[in-house]
Amino acid sequence: MQGRIINLNGGVYQVLLEDGATTFVRARGKLRSVKVLQANPNKISKKQEVMFVKNSPKVGDLVLVENNFIDTILPRRNELIRPDIANVDQVLLVFAAKEPDFSSYLLDLFLVNITKYHILPLIVITKIDKVSEEDLLLLRQKLAYYEALGYTVLFVNSKNKEGIAAVAQQLEGKVTVLSGQTGAGKSTLINAIFPDFELKTQEISSALGRGKHTTRQTTLYPYKGGFIGDTPGFSKLDILGIKKKELSSLFLEFDPSLCRFKDCLHQKNAKDCGVQKSVMEGKILSDRYENYLKMLSEIKKGELK
Ligand SMILES: Nc1nc2c(ncn2[C@@H]2O[C@H](COP(=O)(O)OP(=O)(O)OP(=O)(O)O)[C@@H](O)[C@H]2O)c(=O)[nH]1
Ligand SMILES: [Mg+2]
Ligand SMILES: [Zn+2]
């Protein structure tokens, strides 16, 4: 029978079956890998031949369950590494206005890592009750730039449910996964949207370290004809498998037409660089450019290892 994996815990998969029942199963085989149906990438013909490869099932996978084992993973629409999940429609990037402090570098890093999958994430800023009116206004101004780039930005206070309806509205019929730093308020946000889930949330007095109720596993919860996924937060995030040349394409406003040099990495020492010019003219936010340069140097460091 077909179903969707909604949780993985110690090698045991929780699968929501088509008939609405939930079952706990394992993957067949030594490596816990199973057959994956996928199109043969070597075939040029339009009617692509289906082939089997071995892969491990993950949360979000549509699977065929036979005799209490996962037998087959159906073709994945997409597959994220961090958070580790398959077949998502949208990602909510959850950032706190405070505790932990808002970091535009971290935001850009999350955006780059998601934009890579051709998914346009929504940005949710939580804990707006923790900052002053003035600081909130500054934050709103900073994020207006991202809205102009095409990202939807929402502000919430999950404690008194301010702004929650606007988030809930985005979820209907979709598989949505929440992603963000540990302590950003992902589990609390899901609780505010749907109190019945009663997700445990972590207590943080200081922004540092993982609290006792920090989320440990990715779980999909059925919600309004779709799913909402809670994930473990990160305390550190790397640039995942992005090449130097590819990076600028993940900054949406760094349009390829801006710089006439095809191989330019738009660094400060580059002559006649069109991206630099746009930064100087204020068309590209200088914070974004600085974050780009910082990521570029991280990628270069990684290549030297
Ligand atoms: N004042 C206020 N506190 C919030 C808000 N959202 C979350 N918190 C608090 O922030 C702390 C962390 O929230 P969680 O929801 O556990 O954070 P998380 O993103 O799920 O963290 P991980 O599971 O570790 O990734 C908790 O003490 C929450 O009560 C908010 O909008 N306002
Ligand atoms: Mg959590
Ligand atoms: Zn350039």
Task: Give a verbal description of the structure.
The chain folds into three domains: 2-76, OB fold (Dihydrolipoamide Acetyltransferase, E2P) (Beta Barrel); 85-230, P-loop containing nucleotide triphosphate hydrolases (Rossmann fold, 3-Layer(aba) Sandwich); 244-304, Orthogonal Bundle (Ribonucleotide Reductase Protein R1, domain 1), CATH 1.10.40. The mean pLDDT is 89. The strands form three sheets. The protein has a six-stranded mixed sheet with strand order 12-11-10-13-15-14, sandwiched between helices. It has a five-stranded mixed beta barrel with strand order 1-2-3-7-6. A hairpin with a 2-residue loop joins β6 (62-66) and β7. With 305 residues, the protein is α/β, with parallel strands linked by helices. It has seven helices and 15 strands. The chain starts with a strand and ends with a helix. The radius of gyration is 21 Å and the shape is globular. 24% of the residues lie in helices and 25% in strands. The structure holds guanosine-5'-triphosphate, magnesium ion and zinc ion (ZN). Residues 126-127, 129-130, 156-159, 180, 182-188, 201-204, 210, 214-215, 232-233 line the site of guanosine-5'-triphosphate (GTP).
